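My main concern about presentation is that the manuscript never shows what a single data entry looks like. The format is easy to grasp once an entry is in front of the reader. For illustration, here is how one protein appears when written out as sequence plus structure tokens:
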Amino acid sequence: MPMLRSPIVVSLGFLPVAALAFLASALNGRDMAASLDAQAKVAIAKANGAPVRARFATANGAPSRHPLLSGGEKLDEGTRDRVAKAVAAIHGVGGVTWVDGTALAVTTQTSIKPQHCQDDVEALLNARTLRFEEGSSRIQVASGELVDEVAAALRPCLGSIIAITGHTDSSGSEAGNVQLSLARARAVRDALIARGIPADGLRTRGLGSRSPVEGLDSSDPANRRIEFSVLALQPIKPTPVDTPGPR
């Protein structure tokens, strides 16, 4: 099955340029959010949705493609629906949610782009690191919020086949490395399932140390990583349960 985009890599170690990578990711994310924000203002105005505002950021302030709409509490349902759909139609926008917790109903005509999911997860993981307990497949508690955000970023592409691949550096025996890399990939899979990502769309494998990051020595700790790849897209046809009303 052909891969649509290059894999998303989650490093399990520190890179020498981590600070620069973090800064670049933050700047790119802010530029992306600022662009979507400007387009959303135009879309909302055209939909006669004032005073609705779209916030392109997560709860902790990180840039996001998934806007949170507010200010429409006194609007009628038809206007709220029109505004939400206008924002959702902007190229690059992910799932749209109102501040009162309701989501834009998905239709079978919705064009879901798997690369949006890839971009969303990549933006999250370029800035932060998914960490495991030392020599273990147990995900550190501190990484729980990051897994939450990864699951949210993947959710618009439910129906896709998402490959989760574990890697290690070359320290230790290769048999042990393969076992650990697979166990960590499975731990990530289980964490995503617990957050509502369907198990039948997730695939795991462990490659040990045999596929190091290009340009790095196989012993470099930066080779300890998890990769995500969106491999195919089969949009789920929504049911009334899947498609709540505008409020």
Summary: Residues 18-46 form the longest helix (29 residues). Residues 8-15+112-232 form a domain with the 60s Ribosomal Protein L30; Chain: A; fold (CATH 3.30.1330.60).
